[in-house]
Amino acid sequence: MTAKSTIGFIGLGIMGRHMAGHILAAGYPLQVYNRTAAKAAPLVEQGAVLAENPGALAAACDVVITIVGYPADVEEVYFGDNGIIANARPGTVLVDMTTSSPELAQRIAAAAAGKGLAALDAPVSGGDIGARDGKLAIMVGGAAETFDSVLPVFETMGARIALMGPAGAGQHTKMANQIAIASTMLAVSESLSYAEAAGLDPAKVIEVVGTGAAASFLLNGLGPKIAARDYAPGFFVHHFVKDMSIALSEAERMGLDLPGLALARSLYQKLVDGGYGEEGTQALFRVYCGLTATGEAA
Ligand code: NAP
């Protein structure tokens, strides 16, 4: 890979539009594709080329990056009609940054190897703000030489980039991340629910305890949104339920009991069932308010 290598980017949602923007800003020729083509317009205005489908994009690129929604979306863009695997040129590096299953990452790596391609799973953490600021944590699974070859592209999007092991290790690391977030979101919601019930000003509580031992990215970053009943999405509830479901089935496969994760998934599922799946993960607080539409105590 060189500074002139053409990069392809598929999935221009909350995360992908910023990540692709950083690659373009770094000077790489960029091809883009998204299910809803209109979301590509800002990047096309800045010089990116809009491809007709994932296969056409893959055939024209040296590195193909994807960050779509669900494992089923990943399957479609890699293995579907006009998909990446069937159309990429030998030597192309495929990088899936979607939060998806370790098993699918291994399947993509095996299919890629069979066609003379290389593949990495490289999910991210840091949210929409981390994507916007180019400060994501990027956790990678795959071969060291492939990792080294695309590191300069990762560096346009991330601040902490690590090779975690072979294919699937990036996704396993992301699951460890999501498991930590699941119970922390319960803790943040319960802490603020208690503070409000005790008649405290939640903003002031966050300000004070957010500098002590309870400080966290989630309390300090999402706590103020909860206090303001701002449930606009940075990270969709329905995507988080997807992640927790993958983590629970991996844990089950390993014979591991994770009761905190199971409880968090069941409470987040209530949000989805209540019609709040398109809100941000801080909307968990609604559960502690009786799931009222305003997010205020019932
Ligand atoms: P999003 O806004 O829904 O973006 C996903 C994008 O992928 C959408 O633009 C969607 O197209 C496109 N897409 C889906 N299936 C496709 C397909 N088959 N072909 C082409 N394009 C397709 O979600 P996001 O928040 O950016 O999250 C993307 C992934 O990153 C998810 O796996 C999520 O779990 C993970 N993630 C998110 C965050 C976060 O804070 N948001 C943080 C870390 C990881 P449409 O425009 O047509 O819907």
Description:
The chain is an alpha/beta fold. The chain folds into 2 domains: 160 residues, Rossmann fold; 118 residues, N-(1-d-carboxylethyl)-l-norvaline Dehydrogenase, domain 2 (Orthogonal Bundle), CATH 1.10.1040. It is 50% helix and 13% strand. A 6-stranded parallel β-sheet has the order 3-2-1-4-5-6, sandwiched between helices. It has a 3-stranded mixed β-sheet with strand order 7-8-9. α9 crosses α12. The longest helix is centred in the middle third of the chain and has 29 residues. The radius of gyration is 20 Å and the shape is globular. The termini are far apart. GO terms for molecular function: oxidoreductase activity. It comes from Acidimangrovimonas pyrenivorans.
What's the helix and strand layout?
Blueprint: E1 7-10, H1 16-25, E2 30-33, H2 41-45, E3 49-50, H3 54-59, E4 63-66, H4 71-79, H5 84-87, E5 93-96, H6 102-114, E6 118-121, E7 124-125, H7 127-133, E8 136-141, H8 144-157, E9 158-165, H9 169-197, H10 202-209, H11 217-227, H12 237-253, H13 259-273
Parallel strand pairs: 1-2, 1-4, 2-3, 4-5, 5-6, 8-9
Antiparallel strand pairs: 7-8
Helix pairs in contact: 1-7, 9-11, 9-12, 9-13, 10-11, 12-13
The structure holds NADP nicotinamide-adenine-dinucleotide phosphate.
Residues 10-16, 34-36, 39, 67-69, 73, 76-77, 98-99, 124-125, 127-128, 234-236, 239, 243 line the site of NADP nicotinamide-adenine-dinucleotide phosphate.
